[in-house]
User: What shape does this take?
Amino acid sequence: MNEPARAMRKPDWMRKKISLVQTSAIRKGLRKKGLHTVCESARCPNIGECFGRKRATLMILGDVCTRNCGFCNIDGGRPGRTDPNEPENVARMVKELGLTHAVITSVTRDDLPDGGAEHFARTVRAVRKSNPATAIELLIPDFGGDSSALETVFREKPDILNHNIETVPSLYSTVRPQADFERSLELLRMAASFNLTAKSGIMTGFGETEREFLETMERLHESGVKIVTVGQYLQPSKRHLPVVKYFPADWFEEIAQKIRAIGIPKVFAGPFVRSSYMADKVAAL
Assistant: This one.
């Protein structure tokens, strides 16, 4: 898996067409409510497919992140004020889309005293109030490792608590320089200790070895993670980290079997897999 980092031409089988017809209706509803999605901000390759199914991962706390990860297309900088009406607008959008499984994420807000934890909690409560039958999956940042902030979110008892480790520990200084692998593992351990279904996601193609990849999966298993997603990293623009290697579909099938053998029961792996992609179906595996 180790190859020198260099720009690589994307294989034809890693290209996906996006239909504007499929995405326009949902985008109109989102803009009307002042909402954002990670699907748009992160330039997800599955956006046409998911929006066509009336599925979207709603992103709260604005669309500007206080961190600057080398793989992520979300704008970094100084965020604006949080929208106090956002929780209710998220709840309205969940109802409008008819979601039976809602995925809610956020940018990282290191500028806020609690990292936005109470805003997450308010959003969960608003969604539950107007959509009581909807399962809620949260994809959260690390809140700087603040246990009080984490507990604020965990006490809302989301059906699934997701926090992505993104890559192997040896590559954190390059891929996630403002994050900490052990801090992320502790977050997942805490989630499991609250009897939450812990989920995490990782990308391939940064230059990791298969050995350290599987060792990372063992650490996730030891931390109580029950669901893992594995996808291919795609370079959003020339200013982002280059792809070191593209992996074919059969590699993802093989690695999924090895992860299950480690003890993680639910594994969803493939070139276009993202942590929120087909989240409802992954939860039902």
Summary: Confidence is low (pLDDT under 50) at residues 1-5. The first strand starts at residue 36 and ends at 37.
